[in-house]
């Protein structure tokens, strides 16, 4: 599977989002963190900003909803222009129905797990999804240190994907940088959200290329990819 790098605009300059999107045009997706100050203790942006950003960039938007009641709000982000919408299973009332609604509206459906949420209870839901997001920090703030205790969870998730023969993307988000991306790729991730590591660099586009090169090299040597 192809490595994908998704810069997170949580680490970008919110006053210059269109320019910040252009600065990473070599990226696969632009990761948009939506926080409501309820599900997580931070408040970021909502539907109007996503609509504006979708008009300002050709890079598809990967919206990560760290909000309560995603069953109510997620479809609006598809309508706003998101190509992929991620909801947290801890907040969703009916995750299967929500994933099907997101797909029916024309976007990729993704489900996120906080660090303390195990993957095993949701094995039967995996065929309903296009991507699964393993949080490698507690959601809510950028710039946190990577939780390496999540690596076994990434490995177990990759094993479940392989067990069911699914073409499911496995995304990691939180503390992904030059020092951690190879570990994530080796464990089974193929989609990498990077905020500070991209927008904190002097050349964000070059940072995206460097991270991609690292992840591709690690994936090429990973046992899960060789068996695929």
Automatic annotation (TrEMBL):
Binding site for substrate: 8, 64, 140-143, 173-175, 195-196
Enzyme class: isomerase
Active-site annotation: 33 (proton acceptor), 173 (proton donor)
Cofactor note: Binds 1 divalent metal cation per subunit.
Stored Pfam families: Ribul_P_3_epim
Positions with a binding annotation for a divalent metal cation: 31, 33, 64, 173
Gene Ontology annotations of biological process type: pentose catabolic process; pentose-phosphate shunt
Keyword vocabulary terms for this entry: Carbohydrate metabolism, Cobalt, Isomerase, Manganese, Metal-binding, Zinc
GO cellular component: cytoplasm
Catalytic activity: D-ribulose 5-phosphate = D-xylulose 5-phosphate
Cofactor(s) of this protein: Zn(2+); Fe(2+); a divalent metal cation; Co(2+)
Taxonomic superkingdom: Bacteria
EC number: 5.1.3.1
Functional description taken from the UniProt entry: Catalyzes the reversible epimerization of D-ribulose 5-phosphate to D-xylulose 5-phosphate.
Family (UniProt): Belongs to the ribulose-phosphate 3-epimerase family.
Protein name from the UniProt record: Ribulose-phosphate 3-epimerase
Species, as recorded: Streptomyces griseoloalbus
High-level lineage: Bacteria, Bacillati, Actinomycetota, Actinomycetes, Kitasatosporales
